[in-house]
Amino acid sequence: MQSSRGTFKKLARLFTMMAAVALAPAAHAAYPDRPLTIVVNFGPGGVTDLMARALASGMEKDLGQPVVIQNKPGALGTLGPAYVAKQAPDGYTLAIVSASVVTTTPHLMDVPVKPEDLIHVAGFGKNRYGIVVRQDSPFKKVADLVEAAKGSQSVFFGSPSTPNSLIFFDLGRKTGGKFELISYKAGPEASLALLGGQVAVIAANPPDVISHLQAGKLRLLASGSSQRWPEYPDVPTLKEAGYDVSVEAWAGVAVPAGTPQAIVDRLENGMKRALEMPAVQAKIRQIGADPEFMGGKAYTQYLLQEREKTGAIIKDAGIPRIK
């Protein structure tokens, strides 16, 4: 009798173990086991889109699955992240989140995504900025530009976006110079305005001006970012020229809140290894950006710090909210 009871208990435990395995196969499935989608928050063909495609090409090799790009532009780059925040937190739908979505846009308008809606996996690269004038401009160095802005008249600059504009607003705030904005829809339009003499100076991204610089029509006064442009290693940064001004335009990857930490870690490692691939680095540099990795925790902290810093610049510059 006792033998029968012992056999029954062993069988019961065996059936229980088999049932547990049958009911939770997903817990043992290797991630990823199907294609991933990266939602880019700007349209196809732009710097952010091309950076994302370069990153995806490397992540595909590391993850062993296709990584599909989907563009969802709109509302200053906030629609894409807002869409991803509402998707299943399973690691298969990722968002490209430009730093400005966190650091700048919330100071200017109501945004459809909150910081707690997403987990930032890592930062993977930065757009560069440069202070650019016409070749025949009387401004031969940044000091000339600042002295003119401190005169009786404002210096007019062209800009397609808030990050580009913040360079001049911050420079004016710290030097007492008067810089006045003329807005354009895109970087190439601002470059044409500079070439046509409609504005005196622009803060440009490399793809928008590099051909004009190489043709001798425009001149780079300084890098507006933390590093010199590799194409013009002899041109200093604004900080090296004596002005504590720098704008960083990081791009990062995020996933919906609630995504398991193991999946976040796998994606972070996949991004890191992708950025170590020479082909990926070359693709990102080719479009005028800098491939650089910043882990999720450090990147999240960086965004929060930049959010406070940018908010102060916008407040002091008196930039109104968009309604």
List the keywords.
323 residues, alpha/beta, 11 helices, 20% strand, 42% helix
The biggest beta sheet, please? 6 strands, mixed
**Number of helical runs?**
11
User: Strand share of the residues?
Assistant: 15-25%
- Gap between N and C termini: 81 Å
* Strand order within the widest beta sheet: 2-1-3-10-4-11
Envelope shape: globular
Q: Which regions have little confidence, pLDDT < 50, spanning 5+ residues?
A: 14-28
Helix and strand element order: HEHEHEHEEHEHEHEHEEHHEH
Average of per-residue pLDDT values: 89
Number of strands: 11
- SSE class: alpha/beta
Percentage of residues in helical conformation: 40-55%
Query: For the CA atoms, what is the radius of gyration?
Result: 25 Å
What does this structure look like?
By secondary structure, the chain is α/β, with parallel strands linked by helices. It is built from 11 helices and 11 strands. A 6-stranded mixed beta sheet has the order 2-1-3-10-4-11, with helices on both faces. Strand 1 (36-40), helix 2 (47-63) and strand 2 (67-71) form a beta-alpha-beta unit. It is globular. The termini are far apart. Mean pLDDT is 89; it is low at 14-28.
